[in-house]
Amino acid sequence: MRALGIALGLIALAMMSPAVAQGDEQVPVALWVDGHSRAFRSTEAMETLLADVRGAGIDTIIAVLRSQGDALFNSTFEPAPDFLTSDFTDPLLSLQRHCRSGLRGEPQVHLLLGISVLDVHRGLALPPRGHVINEHPEWQLESINGAVEAREDGVVHHFLDPSLIEVHQHTEDLLTELVASYNLEGIVLDTLRFPEGGNEWGYCAMALEQYHRDVGEVGIPAPEDPTWIQWRRDQVTDLLREISSTIRIVNPQLPIWVTALAAGSLSDGFESSHTYTEYLQDWPAWIDEGLCDGIILENFRDNRDRNQAIEFVEWMREARAICGDRVSLMVAVSGRDNHRTHLFQQLRSVLAADLGVVIVDYDRTARDSDAGFFTDLHTVLQAQHSRTIGAETTPPDSPEPLAASPEALMPEMATDTGIPEDPFGLTSEPASPSAMALPDDAEPITSGNTEPVEPITSSNPSSVAETLPPPDDITTVQHPPMELPPLRPLDTTLEVPTGIFDDLPPSTVPSAREIPNQILGGRDAVILSDGRRLTGEIIEEGENMITLRLTSGNLVQFPRSRVDRIVRGDQ
User: Is residue 69 one of the residues assigned to a domain?
Assistant: First the structure.
């Protein structure tokens, strides 16, 4: 069904020198950046974005440059946002230039262009002159009560109605011009769905007229009418079908990604999930029909919650089973829903499953703080790389190789933190030390690739089957144990967080006790004033701060004022 054997996105992205290698394959690590974020307010802000991305080892940016019905690129169909300045009129072109390798010797960052299809305005501020809901208010999605303002997470959203022929044509015109005008590496179609409480939406006069013509009924259908629900779900699929056809006519080589919701529980199957029943999104049908080349699973869960932590992996397992070897799959994790520690847990779960990961988003990288996030992320990605292929700093004959088992990641902490110790009911044995040893011909780990990388090209879709384990193999993935976030190296110019343990209950760290030197085995132990103990290696002891490398390989810092005593392994 795919014209000219369109490249499946994950295979294409895997050729981009991403930050993390899984086994013999590399998977992408992407950052989601909204068009209305701070990154696109000036050239300097964009350069900061690229510095953050390259410094962290991220290889791909997903820039949603039509996020609110306005265009951060040259368009004759939609206006530019009001915040663009006269010397920064085409952020898409500028971003493409900055992402290329060789400008100043930096590694290449690949760029996927995101388009919010149906969600076209957020907040209470008026959209710019010429905006689609100003020019055509009758195209807006309307509730059964006549409202046009949907609320999600406390924010007002305006959606276009996917059942209107006029909305289809406007979207196709916009994308035809865009794809023909810019040399894109890939496109991501976002918000192909109804808003929260979707059964209450879709009642504008034009939509009802179309429904009556298609179905032969009269009157206003009830929200729970199954015919009405399925008809509206079909309208979303019809819109994607027309968009996909349009893009492939203009550029048959362009990989098409779509975002897919992971909403609600899967306990009774996909068709009972909120994705299908409330948001009216049937993304498995999109895959069956070949309407896209890749899926970005919006798997937004708070990993502190036991049930959500389980749902996170259940949706990842379901998505990989549905995608199979037909389309590529990346999993999006949300900093708005997680503190940094828990976000990194989810990130490692995704990478351990040999899937690409998307971090959402640049303006809110984590619930607790954005400070030092990209430095911490770099540490996590490097550690994940090391755990997968072995670290050159780990002796080949080490009796306790890095990440040989989940327990080895954090032996100094318990798991009674609200996240189940074994949420999947697994009892698989940890890898043996010999299985984790560094291969003799392994290349040294680096933070990025400075060689130019070829842009995305088409490849044989059947090759994906060789890069992904069978869907059921995801059951071997162990949910990472709770551990402290890796903090940036000591830097007197930056304020070091002092509350890194504040969100952890005391029960998560064993109480202090006397540690015989022969048991300590050369490791240092730091006893905190509240009785908790951390073991590892003290690598820097400043006047005010102590930096400790935990046995998990992560770095943590804490003020001396919180230290009761230090027991050194060589004492």
Answer: yes
Instruction: Give the total number of structural domains in the chain.
Output: 2
Q: Identify whether the C-beta of residue 270 lies closer than 8 Å to the C-beta of residue 284.
A: yes
Alpha-carbon distance of 507 to 42, in angstroms, equals 47
Residues 191 and 289 in one domain: yes
User: What is the reported pLDDT for 524?
Assistant: 81
Of 455, 476, 497, at which residue does a domain stop? 476
240 within domain boundaries: yes
Count of residues making up the chain:
571
Among 34, 284, 280, residue whose Cα is nearest residue 141 = 280
Last residue of a domain, one of 421, 455, 476: 476
Q: What's the rounded Cα separation, in Å, for the pair 212 and 219?
A: 8
Q: How far apart are CA 407 and CA 414, in angstroms?
A: 9
DSSP string, 384-409: HHHHHH--TTS-TT-SS-TTSSHHHH
Residue 206: alpha-carbon gap to chain centroid: 36
Closest CA to 14 of 32, 27, 1: 27
Task: Please give the C-alpha separations between residue 231 and each of 109, 165, 223, in angstroms, as whole numbers.
Answer: 41, 14, 12
Q: What is the CATH number of the domain that holds 419?
A: 3.20.20.80
Residues 49, 159, single domain; the answer is yes
Q: Alpha-carbon distance 501 to 317, whole Å?
A: 32
Question: Which structural domain range is residue 553 located in?
Answer: 506-567
**In which residue ranges of the chain is pLDDT below 50?**
1-19, 21-24, 390-521
Is-contact 289 310, C-beta < 8 A?
no
Identify whether residues 307 and 391 lie together within a single domain: yes
Query: What is the Cα–Cα distance from 223 to 219, expressed in whole angstroms?
Result: 13
CA angle 454, 458, 462 (to 5 degrees): 125
- What single DSSP character describes residue 270? G
pTM of the prediction?
0.69
Structure tokens at 275: 């994705």
